[in-house]
Amino acid sequence: DDWAGFGQRTTGSGTVLLESVLVDPALVAPRADALTGPYAYGPYAQALHAAIDAGLARGALADAAAFVRTRTRPWIESGVERAADDPLLVQRFGELELAVRAAEAALGVGAAAVDRAYAARDADLHADASLAVATAKVLADRAALDVTSTLFEVAGAASTDESLGLHRHWRNARTHTTHDPVRYKVQHLGRWALNGEVPPRHGVI
After folding, report:
1. Which domain holds residue 149?
2. Cβ(117)–Cβ(128) under 8 Å?
3. Distance between CA 50 and CA 177 in Å, rounded?
4. Does any domain span residue 202?
5. Which tens digit of pLDDT belongs to each residue from 101-150?
6. How far is it, in rounded angstroms, from Cα 33 to Cα 42?
7. What is the distance between the alpha carbons of residues 69 and 86, in angstroms, rounded to a whole number?
8. 4 has pLDDT over 80
9. pTM over 0.85
10. 3-state helix, strand, coil in the chain (%, to 5)
11. Cα separation of 64 and 57, whole Å?
12. Burial of 15 (0-12, 13-18, 19+ CB in 10 A)
């Protein structure tokens, strides 16, 4: 595996060489056919990426909560005996939970839209699926980056101990969210909302 990113290691992102492999020409299909045909290929693929980001956010939040409950010491000005009872930490965890739940809910809506589009082979449903999944991808991207970074803020200095490996959450999120920039998804959502412009079919929305 020659993938050398600081995150998403051993994910099969590296080079694959196939030599002397027999392939029946009848089984070869141009990628463009999958992208432009009524197969919901783009939103399906994007839903997978959104699910990865949402999962990264949920996993990091769970690890952060476990660390605060068991290892984080309360700040001297908090007035509490347990860090987990610090109202400022409780508030921050509530905000992070909201972000993760929003991403997960949007992902469910997007996945259902993909199922409808694939079953019906309908252009309008394909557009709906693309926009629904784009929404999920943006929310999941933001949640993953926010939670994996804030983990260290809420858990405290002890959480930066490299032997704990908690930085893997941020490394994975920071790496995976570069796969395709969500700013373009926000643009497509805006064009739809303002002008009714249907998103393109090119595999990344």
Report:
1. 36-61+95-195
2. yes
3. 9
4. no
5. 999 999 999 999 999 999 999 999 999 999 999 999 999 999 999 999 99
6. 12
7. 11
8. no
9. yes
10. 70, 0, 30
11. 10
12. exposed
